[in-house]
Design brief:
Layout lengths: L3 E6 L3 H12 L4 E4 L11 E5 L2 E4 L10 H6 L9 E2 L3 E7 L2 E7 L2 H8 L4 H26 L10 H16 L2 H10 L4 H8 L3 H12 L11 H9 L12 E2 L3 H14 L3 E3 L4 E7 L2 E7 L4 E9 L3 H8 L2 H13 L7 E8 L16 E4 L3 H12 L8 E5 L14 E8 L10 H19 L3 H4 E7 L1 H8 L35 E3 L13 H16 L3
Parallel strand pairs: 1-2, 1-12, 2-9, 6-14, 12-18
Antiparallel strand pairs: 3-4, 5-8, 6-7, 10-11, 11-12, 13-16, 13-17, 14-15, 15-16
Helix pairs in contact: 1-10, 1-17, 3-4, 4-9, 7-8, 8-9, 8-13, 11-12
The structure holds flavin-adenine dinucleotide (FAD).
Flavin-adenine dinucleotide binds next to helix 1, strand 13 and helix 16.
């Protein structure tokens, strides 16, 4: 007799979502987390006395509404902050650009830059929302298992076909044309101003080892807009209290449904019997048994380090080892003695994402350097100042700037990250200072997390933020591997429920919720 119906490996947000859904359905669930706290990459960290910063993640705009509602997250203390501004994009030589949630407000402000782009913007925003609705549909579905098509897969296909037809003939043609495209071409067809092209395109390459001229980045862009109020500029929603609060909220929700959550419990092996997952072994030597094992660790780590290679066989082991995880993202948190001054920006404009991506060329050059193991002297940065919307994070008057820096390759061509860590922080401050003169003098503390730190501290293969690249080769039925995209993963009884599964990374809860649905369906069928 198994100890549990399901054991979930990892208490990142997706692992907690899976556990909460399973426990809510009356199943006995245990979550095992190797770190001392839950939340995975959702972390709030103290970077100077009394100053708390979003450790890694800073926006949570894609958190699925049904997850919030189904798990009663508001009852557990979730408060989302959704400012009207989405992007403030300062420029090296000229006035800054602001993208608002309200497309007509954006268009009004664009008029002084380009009458053509002001005219085009609302139509583009509407088109993105409409095409993204189809991707939102796919994101909620379970991809088919191409090797073993079932009646459920057939139904999913029929429903997807209906959703596709509902787009209308023109939009349906447009979505299939656009998805394989490079985002640079997509924005180049519509806008003439370099600044707006860069600001919008940056959304398609965030967290990935792709540049704006990489094929398929339009799909990443549409996926980002899917299922939320993203539209052309994307979302800028944050959590009151910082991302760590969302981790506490999810843990509290999972426990309220009866799930057990243990921290400091590293799983070292998935136990198998007759080529079926039956439990896990912990680093402490303890063995625990369950009817289903769900891993929210990344797919490469799950198959290449946790499962017996004899059970999965050399072919699958080779495929798992080749899942692309090129981590190129670093995080720099700055504590500031006062609010930095960006010319042309009042406080309202700084409450969303501050994006340093003044053109497609700027982005592509910054990406290019990473292909040769280098960091560009002019990186792409996305920053937020969470203390503007959430003063609980720092003493009065002080601020936090949370900066994502790209592209910073895990494997540097010269030197190593121990030596380069502080140079990266210097580069980020120097780059920001160009747009916010005097910012350097306000810095009272800084914290740097490189791709190597992300791998070591958060268990991400290659330091990849999304557990696997979001390219078309790892999308929908191909995520993370063709034939293993239906959340059933590698061996019978083992499931994948983290960002490496469809529909991918970001704080969405979507892979976790979709995986729970499949696990529940299988548990109902099996009466062991
Ligand atoms: C620098 C950076 C910035 C980001 N910013 C944003 C952002 O602003 N907005 C956004 O939406 N997304 C952002 N992301 C992406 C987002 O954070 C991830 O896609 C998401 O957090 C992954 O969640 P998860 O639950 O799938 O996995 P994780 O958060 O990685 O959780 C997996 C958990 O499994 C645990 N684990 C692994 N192996 C074992 C084991 N053997 N035994 C027990 N436990 C184990 C890990 O410790 C971890 O807690 C960012 C990522 C990075 C790196």
């Amino acid at each position: 007799m198994a100890d549990y119906d399901a054991i979930v490996i990892g208490a990142g947000h997706n692992g907690l979502v899976t556990a909460a859904y399973l426990a809510k359905a009356g199943r006995r669930v245990l979550v095992l987390e190797r770190r001392e706290r839950t939340g995975g990459i959702l972390d709030t960290v103290e970077i100077a006395p009394g100053v708390r910063a979003p450790g890694i993640v800073h926006t949570v705009g894609r958190l699925r509404t049904s997850v919030i509602d189904d798990l009663g997250l508001v009852r557990h203390g979730l408060v989302l902050i959704d400012p009207p501004v989405r992007v403030f994009a300062p420029q090296p030589d000229g006035p800054a650009l602001t993208l608002w949630g309200d497309a007509s407000r954006t268009a009004d402000e664009l008029r002084s830059r380009s009458a053509h782009d002001a005219e085009a913007y609302p139509t583009f925003d509407k088109k993105v929302r409409s095409l993204a609705s189809f991707l939102a549909y796919l994101n909620a579905a379970t991809p088919p298992d191409v090797k073993n098509l079932t009646f459920a897969d057939l139904l999913t296909g029929l429903r997807a076909g209906r959703a596709f037809r509902e787009l209308g003939a023109r939009a349906a043609r447009e979505v299939t044309r656009m998805m394989p495209m490079a985002i640079a071409d997509v924005v180049g067809e519509v806008f003439e101003d370099y600044a707006i092209r860069g600001a919008i395109a940056s959304r398609a390459v965030l967290y990935s080892a792709t540049g704006p001229w990489s094929a398929g980045t339009a799909t990443t862009f549409l996926s980002d807009a899917a299922g939320n109020d993203g539209g052309a500029p994307g979302q800028s929603v944050s959590v009151r209290g910082g991302p760590g609060t969302l981790a506490e909220v999810l843990t509290s929700a999972a426990r309220s449904f009866g799930a057990e959550v243990r921290t400091g419990a590293e799983v070292v092996r998935v136990l198998t019997r007759d080529e079926r997952a039956v439990g896990v072994a912990l680093a402490s030597g303890e063995e625990l048994f369950a009817r289903a094992v769900a891993s929210s660790a990344d797919p490469k780590r799950t198959l290449t380090t946790l499962v017996d290679p004899v059970v999965i066989g050399p072919h699958l082991l080779w495929r798992a080892g080749n899942i692309r995880t090129p981590g190129v993202v670093s995080k720099v948190n700055l504590s500031l003695s006062a609010l930095p001054r960006f010319p042309g920006a009042d406080e309202e404009r700084l409450r969303g994402r501050i994006v340093i991506a003044p053109s497609i060329d700027h982005l592509e050059r910054a990406f290019d350097a990473s292909k040769y193991g280098r960091i560009s002297e002019e990186p792409f940065l996305e920053a937020t100042i969470p203390t503007l919307s959430d003063p609980t994070l720092a003493p009065e008057g002080q601020h936090v700037m949370s900066v994502i820096a790209q592209w910073t390759p895990h494997a540097l061509r010269e030197g190593d990250w121990e030596a380069e860590r502080e140079s990266l922080a210097d580069l980020v401050v120097k780059t920001m200072e160009r747009y916010a003169p005097g910012l350097g003098e306000l810095v009272t503390g800084r914290q740097v997390l490189t791709p190597v730190d992300l791998e070591r501290e958060y268990g991400l293969s290659g330091g990849h933020p999304l557990h696997a690249e979001p390219g078309l080769d790892c999308w929908f039925a191909w995520r993370p591997l063709l034939g293993h995209a239906s959340y059933r993963f590698g061996v019978e009884g083992l499931y994948l429920c983290g960002s490496g599964a469809h529909p991918g990374g970001g704080i969405t809860g979507a892979p976790g919720a979709n995986a729970a649905r499949e696990i529940l369906a299988d548990l109902k069928k099996k009466k062991r």
